[in-house]
């Protein structure tokens, strides 16, 4: 007791106005700190150590900024010149991808990515959201906890394993449905739909769990039954979180590479049916990067740039949804 | 259809004007409301719709049950199918130290996976934890720097692994001149898992009650000492959770490694080359599995490899559960 | 002593105390008989016997944790949500057993409830009020319009809100939210209205408005309210039941309870000696 009093006194003296020893670790940042901890400049003997630590931590934080900056820089520097050489309209809207003839049109791949992503949403979202509702509001006891750990497991399975599963199970199944090899939009949509399930379930479930009990109780008190209260009051109240879940799933689907490569067939043409093969932007990169050179290689990087733009759009969409949710 | 509804004694009809002196005084119009006038009609309607409503409820309930059942079935099918086909394919040959084109042993890939993942974590964990410490313990909340870090971390989290692969290829492999190597791959993975570790650490630190910090400062400890002695220890389970998540991503990653670490099936030769083994190309288990599956020559081995991957994932999940329990305990 | 309380109550209240027609005993709308309630091993209510006369306001008073809110939640079976909650004895609505013969959702429609914290749904004011009727099968826009207007009028909040029915209900003040919740409860045409300390989270002006409203609502509904505020009970209730440790110590006309309590514990409580 006495000791702490003394040390507080001495700390107070050391940290008094003007404490010259601690400029780096000192008052401005410390005083303005958001933590409600008592703010006091460190004692003189530790000033250097504190200062160094502060700078190190700040550098670590700055690294994520640096990483994004570097990624943007390197992708753009290596990708944009190719776009210029090929011509932006020819690159984005060209219908033919034939590197041997210097034809680099990625429109079929853009459409392919969109088709496959849309398919994944159609396959994964309804089941995922309903499962989230089940886990949040219907599941009881062991069934619920079993399913919850099952979803965690689904989230942990590597995408190659999904791709392999798609290759040995889903593709043969699709082959039975009609003409073609089974390597198709449908197969890719199914496997992606399964892969985005855990994302959608966990995010939507935590949004549903976060809905205050008073909404649910208020609905029940009006003589509304459990199911209607959940679907008409609780679910709408979690709308922004549910939207976020869908967008996150969308982002995951559009960026998924390995599983798609293994089941999609990879023809660089716009698919004319669910059963025809398709090549996504991600697949385009992974398939040809191994041997590409010169303009071909740059065109692949440029494909990555286009993909990056799509991903940034979903990230922005996500932050808009989150902001809206907070505003409410 | 019989309407099982007991007609209750009529209540005095309601008129807002009659029973509200305020409304009456304000001269509120008596609408002779059809709603109240047709009270019984409404009740009959309620009774009739009750059946309809019950049917809808049952439908909704069974829809959620069905969705949950489908999810469970998908899980069981994927895991079960891989295990049933893969476990018989596991053979001692697959665990030879040497990879040859006749015996596509997965042991070198397994060893490389461990080395790669540990190296990536060794790079990412200090940075991620340090960054989180800065954001939670040092920085002024809501400052521009903090917001920028948050936005970029969120962006990093959304970037698909193939983009990381491209970047790693352009930066580490080409610009830094490290070639297709363990180091290039590990650095790429480190950037990829950085936001995971940052976010989980941040959450863990924020969950530490402020009284711990006050305790540290109250004893006259500096900020660093307070963080290291009072705050960080109770955040360890949370941080560990993030590390396990990151490990899972490292183990399963392919797209980010194909063009950064390459596909050479050998264990980096640290014994022979020392530190220079960092510049050896190597394939992780997931990459190994991808090449096997694509070549199409070694389907059974691919099954076996996916079993090993699944087991790794199961182990990580179990570890996660233990950590989560620790967190619960430390909360209490 | 009591007259002083009454005066004080009058002074603090904006409106006059409702005239209590003292004579003829009103028919019981709801009743509980030999009610015992358990949360796991803990007994929350002990052999409670009460009647709630039609078109009167009954106040349940008592110190925190005495079981008055528990009883209220038993009346519309909101306790069903509490895990490990077990009810013995009977709760009667118009003579029908609420736990054995009536369906829980039907019971809750007929026995509306307003909570301590205002809990409007995160949707528009209009949708909040229309939510109940919609769920009960009223679909036509014209019908809903009438119901919404009448319910808001009945909750004395129509004039404040009529120009912003499409606005989100969460933007309203606490007092407005609570009256909106009353309107929402009225929109399903309940027969009984339960108020669970519904003014305790509100400012004095909002409280006064809601108290006035309760005085009007009893002409049409049977009102049962839990309150911590004895002056409030005195101002607006016709009957009062005093709870202590899960038991009804004394119940009867509000005037009697406050002016001539039989049990010394009641006397101590209403005199403000504990609680």
From TrEMBL, chain A:
One of its GO terms (molecular function) is phosphate transmembrane transporter activity. It is a multi-pass membrane protein. The keyword ATP-binding does not apply. Its main location: membrane. Residues 110-318 form the ABC transmembrane type-1 domain. Keywords: Cell membrane, Membrane, Phosphate transport, Transmembrane, Transmembrane helix, Transport. InterPro entries: MetI-like, MetI-like_sf, Phosphate_PstC, Phosphate_Transport_Permease. Residues 20-43 are annotated as: Disordered. It comes from Adlercreutzia hattorii. Part of the binding-protein-dependent transport system for phosphate; probably responsible for the translocation of the substrate across the membrane. This is Phosphate transport system permease protein.
TrEMBL record, chain B:
It is a multi-pass membrane protein. The keyword Coiled coil does not apply. Pfam families: BPD_transp_1. It comes from the Bacteria. It is found in: Cell membrane. The chain crosses the membrane at residues 62-84, 104-136, 148-172, 178-197, 230-248, 302-324. Its main location: membrane. The keyword Membrane applies. PROSITE patterns: ABC_TM1. Belongs to the binding-protein-dependent transport system permease family. CysTW subfamily. This is Phosphate transport system permease protein PstA. It comes from Adlercreutzia hattorii. The lineage of its organism: Bacteria, Bacillati, Actinomycetota, Coriobacteriia, Eggerthellales.
UniProtKB/TrEMBL annotation, chain C:
GO terms for cellular component: membrane. It comes from the Bacteria. Residues 30-270 form the ABC transporter domain. One of its GO terms (biological process) is phosphate ion transmembrane transport. The keyword rRNA-binding does not apply. GO terms for molecular function: ATP binding; ATP hydrolysis activity; phosphate transmembrane transporter activity. InterPro entries: AAA+_ATPase, ABC_transporter-like_ATP-bd, ABC_transporter-like_CS, P-loop_NTPase, PstB-like. It comes from Adlercreutzia hattorii. PROSITE patterns: ABC_TRANSPORTER_1, ABC_TRANSPORTER_2. The gene is pstB3. This is Phosphate import ATP-binding protein PstB 3. Keywords: ATP-binding, Nucleotide-binding, Translocase, Transport.
